[in-house]
Records
---
Amino acid sequence: MSGPVEENLVRAAVDKAEDEMIFIGPDHPYYPLLAELVAAVGKAWQQGFEQGRHGGNHSNPYTWNGPEG
């Protein structure tokens, strides 16, 4: 299932993580990990969004199965 509601949940989670990064600050031991996750999830979400927007073969490029199955 894919749609605007799921996209908004992903965006909300990334935004929340970015806010937490501001709260904990760069001296916190988990800051680099959180920053890496925020960047990776944001980039993956954007790639999936663009792939669907440009009429990709499969609605989700990050599935375990290819478009044929």
---
Amino acid sequence: MLFSSPQSLLELNLVPEEWGGNTPMVPISAKKGTGIDDLLQAVAWVAEEKQLMANATKLAAGTVIEAHLDKKRGAVATLLVQAGTLRTGDIVSCGACCGKVRSLTNSAGRPVGEAGPSIAVQLIGLNAVPNAGDEFQAHTNDGDARKAADAAGEGLRAARIAEMSTTGSMVTLSSLATFDEDTDTLQRMNLIIKGDTSGVVEAIKGALQGLPQESVVLRYLLCAAGDITTSDVDLAAASSGMVVGFNLNPDEAVLSHAKRLGVTINTYKVIYNLIDDVKAAMEGKLRTIEERQPLGTATVKAVFGSGKKKDVHVVVKAVFGSGKKKVAGVVVDEGKLQKGAQMEVTRGKDTIVYTGKVASLRRIKDNVEEVQVGLECGVGADEWTSWQEGDVIKCYLVVTKSQRLEEARAATAVDVNSLSDRGRRRRPAQQQQRTSTRCEQQQQQYRNGSSSSRSGRQLAAISSCGCRRQQLHQQQLSQPAAGLSCKLQHCMAPAAAAAAVVRGAAAAAALCVAAGQWRPQPAAAAAAAAAAAGGGWCSWQVVMQHTAAAYEAF
């Protein structure tokens, strides 16, 4: 580990030898190339002192340091042998990859026949490019190697699904704020990341995870080592994705194919430039916001009809036009008034009586574009004439502004508890008592088997979980028609209990409950009836069809 000072070691409860501890500290400089030999000697001394030894006679095992795809040699993995001896011709599994060792190359670039513990070598012969950090193991036969690779692949797929569920794919109360108001879809940005090595790809993913994703979620369609291919371009075109390459030079055929499909390929040599461009692309998906830019305020001192009455107030000495149009004579108190800007007229205690544009501004006989603080002028509005003395004019500009990810994070912050409370509308105590009694009756009917229909059995089960009781309770439910069984726990949102019973059928109902659009009990009933009709799984339309009947029941 690298530390800048002995104080950094103390933070980890490591005391340097020079301070009376037992932790050796070696100063090095990669820029000057000093201290490297001392570091190697210190490592060898610590290994000898602690008797760090490995069995060199067993089957080889170790870790992947780096891996990449070579055009001529195929998948190339840099391995660190930690136990046993790796030889040419061995059959190995490496993460989700496997293969036979065709050649081994040492750190000097020379081919070797074997590599013992603590030796780093480049291996050629795997059927795919492994990930940096994957563990490799030598096997006695090809079947064992394939089984180990398949098991590792299943683990990687499970981890990928779990990662997707934690990056915005699951619909939860807190993710409701990330739905676009215009399209009702979650703002996503699809990425295809290709790099020269797998370690670089993982480093890019780790760096991008540091970007705020409350409003725009990054979705990795493909992350792999190797050159950018036409298949990557086709995937980007089909998903409106962005192709990002690091330390790569795409072929002319790939570039022309991307140009024909309208896909932009971005390649980088510096990771900071990559992060900045991805962040800018994410901000481009955010909706623009309108902000008020205050200009000034003014107070109405007199009101007169243009062309109908002689001016007796010094603020206006010109005619705004013929007809019965009324004009306000004002004094600018703060800032300035600007023609064409927006204005808000307040009367009394901040009562807004008009909002619109400043149609005209005049001083003496001249039409002016703006009037500064302390000056008098006449203000006219085309569609409003109900001026009164004492009205206050607030002049402002409406500025369209692009959001930044940090600003969008603050704007989309949602209090989940208050959002949940909107869906759980309070009912009078008497109505709650009636509902509780009805739930108990339905539950008793379910136990006795008197409910003949599947929807009645499911409705009784779900309603029992929807009762708003303070104690927790569990009940084993059986659904022969759906082939499901689950143990339900007390839930404050009945639609969530419905989701546990009927799986995906109640997901839409749960979402509506969270948004406060449905009452909880009818939503749960609709999901139950829809599931009964669909055999345990149904679509959103089926849930909607049963909603009206659920309202009647409750």
---
Amino acid sequence: MATMALPSLFNGERAVVVLFIARTLYAAPLSLLAESLSLSLLSLFALSVEISVESSSPIAQFSTRPGASSGILLGAVTLPGVGASRLIQLSRALSLQEIGVEELEYVRLQYWAMAASCFSVLVFLCFIFHHPPDNNRSVCSLGDWGRRFSSLSIALFAAVGCVFSAMKFDSGWRTTAMLLWVLCHGFAAVKQFQHVVHTFPACASIGEALLVTSGLVIYFGDTFSCTVAKIYELLIPAKVMSEQHGIKRSETSTIIQGVLLGLLLFPLFIRSLLQVWEKYTSSAPCKVREYHEMGRSVIFYASLVFVLGVIVPSWMQFVQDFPAHPVLWVFDFVFSEPLKRISLCMYWVAVICVSVLRFYNISKNSKIERILLRKYYHLMAVLMFVPALIFQPKFLDLAFGAALAVFLVLEIIRVWRIWPLGHLVNQFMNAFTDHRDSDLLIVSHFSLLLGCALPIWMSSGFNDRPLAPFAGILSLGIGDTMASMVGHKYGVLRWSKTGKKTIEGTAAGITSVLAACSVLLPVLATTGYIFTQHWLSLFLAVTVSGLLEAYTAQLDNAFIPLVFYSLLCL
């Protein structure tokens, strides 16, 4: 019995994640010893929780995406792994005096917030699966050993965090503030995780929900920190502020952050208004009820304009001190280089129109598998984003934010069935869905766009690895696409008996990314970028991300770019 259970503890996805963590820890300098220890403990704890969960009877509290494994280990270590890699990169910058110590310390604080968020959700999962409600106890193969190991991991992780805080900050109030800040992230992550899995049942695995949860908590926490820092700046001398909140944010990042968070909070705002409207029309005369749907739409669109046109720009103006209204600043930014940027926009529109119309007709009339058809959109991303990232990277940052905002608005309209676009958007989007999407939430287009955008956004500021911003475009647009197409047409040898991924497809994906890198590096050299990474390190990064694509049952558009980006930063 034990010999049969042993191989299940070491599947391909876990092996790739262990390789990813080992590579990150190997590259970490001694100055990041506390972060390395915490990442190791987090990985071990996540592995024990994943084994416990997948060895147990399912818990009714979690309705996860059908056909997907739990993905707890991958979901728990991805963002902290990104934070650790970014810390390693900034440590090199600090040694070269390219950045100030305050920027490194802020990213360090973000790392601890990421780790605490993931660790808190793991503790919550551990408690739920060891103490299920209604005496429906899970049958855990690890038994008492698993519970003891979980308790030990929690204690060691807390001890490492406290010791690090005590050594890093000389004053007691700063140590206390840091610990409270990290603990607040952990508490918020647990609440957000519960909200995600209950609001969007069967839309994500536990690991995917954990990734989304920790990402949102960090993003909202950064917004709150930015706002509080601005308030402090108005109340205390600037010199004191520079020691604690010394990183400089660009206008573009502030605009993107404001718009995206405004749209993420918008459903909470509009829900209250629509509930009032529903209550009014339900008791109103018949003539009023005839205009119910139209009135609902008017309230929705008017509220959307108010949030994006008044509330969000007011916050932007407060935290950034724009020389003009943020909307006017965007127009000035776009037309500061009109020939290049307007031409690029026209090129994007042409590519989108031709591709979408062509593939939409094919999807309705062709017998080609939808998963292969959607890979053409990955190639379209390469055609659109590579030229822009090389020649107009700052404009591409803003364009990604605008595209993601449009996707969010369309998804809200689709989910809420807002007249007159709700039905049309739903019909159009369903033509490009796959098995990972549901009627409740379509995530494939979000994950592709974010997978390409996040490495670019995270590479802002110091970046001594010119390929790092291309992590999403290379891994999804080229590697994932070639792996799927070659594997589907020529694949014979499968990685597992139950999976569809083939060794031929994985080899094609890895080879194509390496070939793309060899072509891209000379082009980047002409624009002033110098390749400082060892080719062996690049080969390992490409191979690990390719193996992750082959083995993972999670949403690869979300995880692969982040893992590839982390490895490229080392």
---
Amino acid sequence: DGEAHIVGLYAGVYDLKARLGDKVSKTDLSVPLSRGQVVERTLQLEEGRFVTVTVTDGPPREDRPEPPPVEGADVVLVEEGLSSFPLEGRTTKSGIVVLGPISEGVATVSARAEGFVPRVASGEDLEDDSVTIPLLRGGAIVGDVKDDRGFPVDGATIELIGTDLDGMPIHETTDRSGLRDALFAYSLAGPQPLVPRGELGVMPGPIPPIPRAGDIVSAPDAGGEPWVSRQDGTFRVAPATPGRVQLLVRHPEFVETLSDVLKVGPGQEVEVHVVLQRGGRLEGRVVEEDRTPVAGARVEIAALEGTFETLSYTADDGTFAAASVPKEISISVSRAETPGEIAARLVVEVEPGARATRIEIVLEKAREATTIRVVDRADFPLSGVEVRVQSLDVGASLARTFFSNDDGEVEVGGARGLPLRVVLEKPGKASAAHTIDSAERDHRLTMLDGSALRGTVTGRDGREKLEGADITLHTIAGALHARTDEYGSFEVPDLGDGRLRIVARHDGFASAERVFAFTGDPRRATEIEAIDLAPAGIAEGHVLDDRDEPVVGARVGLDAVPTFLPVGKLPSRLAITDADGRFKLAGLPEGTVILEAYSPELGRGRTEGITIRADRITDRVEIRIPDQGYDPKKLRGAGSVALTLAERSGTVVVLDVPEGGEAEHAGIEPEDVLISLTGKQVTTLEQARDRLSGPLGEDVIVEISRPMPSGAPDRIKLRLRREVVRR
């Protein structure tokens, strides 16, 4: 009768799926089950599809035979990117495995094999239910760990961090690799029988014998040599993901240390030496102004240089302690009742050695609250307004989001006397940003009726309506995103009057940008002139160094390539060179262009006078990076902000703001001029980069000057979160 009974389940939420031969049901997601409840669900079987996965030893290379298959690779197929029912398999001698059945929809395939680096293929890589996954051979990092006196350090644990050749983040340890191996081996046997476990003492057998006293219980093999330094201080990290990586070395008696940046290629062995410094001991006490100890206070300690971070809580007498602390640290203290608000922040120098550095932190009296009342033009209160409040004071980390009550009010605790940036958003009203120089007890902010902006994106001089074009609208309140419909039209609501910057992008066309002063009418949408995108061309070629050797991992783009990017996917307007130094850059405007290549190791090179034709490929483009003695300054802290900057006549100007970074989220735009960072004026690139870098837990207050359509620049203060960046 096709019925199945599953009993003995705990209360919770479950996913259900059925498979029979070549048929499969769609996944029934998030089925709630209460204690004692009987739930009936119907799963409809339909013809499934099978995915053929081929795993090869590396990608195809120029003038080389086809890459050989990889036998015994572990392959996992997941529907919709995340699923409770993954399918696992191992490749045959021909490097092929067929997985299924699965339902119609997006699927993701991952493959890993011993000695290789895991790789994921997304749904867009699957063509006709088949996909080829080229695995890169892992590299190896060998070296030794010594202390500052030259003695070897044994027992230091090692982690691998950085970015791979595609710019995606790396964070590898032997524990994680071992867990993946064990989980795959467990899952390969297929679904486990649904047997009630633990009820009334009934357990599935066989039950292993109880260990006798003195027996040694060992963990299963973690799948390789552990990443720990030996007695002579030497170590080997393998397989190491190819890319730009660093080793994070930890030992309880020393300050954790990051190695120099290492460029690891597929199958390449790299040598490195790591020196650990003995840290100091910090002892402290947190008290109120009346000398009362503060119990349960949250104490965050972060290195001004490096990645060291630790967290502690004060005891009943207000004391706390930390060992192996670096010389220069930043301490942030929060009260137990408000853990997200910094009550005190200070920089401390800790002397290395056995003697402790003792400090006392006195918390100032908590600031009083500020009430913000949001009203409309007729002075009626507005409920349900999203109110984002940020402190513009370097020493106060207030950053909270509220929603106004029926009286249009929000109470912002601890904000009295602080400079604030307040952003207001509500459907039907114009989004607005307000700056308050010093918060008082009450503030009344007015929201006006919102206006809509309507436009059309066309191609080929208006002859083609472009469906699916990405629209990014930069406003004073932040970036807004839209997509064109089948007629090439888009509409963005809830806009206020003022400066707007609009950017339109579509595959196969060059992007277009427009800056204008917007004046809307709340009664009807304001039409703007159609944005016509010119058909784009493609450039293919190689990036070479002075010795005619291919440059691997160089970024290639139009005009100027950003120096820093957020960790993650490469922006669509950039390309990256492969193992042969090849690149393919799409979306280029027709005409004569300049292409630039940037290598984090070699510097920059550019080629001018490249002719691009619409809907054509310009091949055999050669970009040469000359020897320039490139030695970029190492970032001071664990965090920074992904911005490309330049000096112009004694000022620092923003050249590029990468997509998806904290700078774009905060509202920084190209051609903004940096006036000050963290309250200090900046006039050089070195000053700007130094002040943008620091602990990840601390934000940066940025004051900028922005060109306006009227001609007079506007001065704006913003708060930026530091992020992990890559060169």
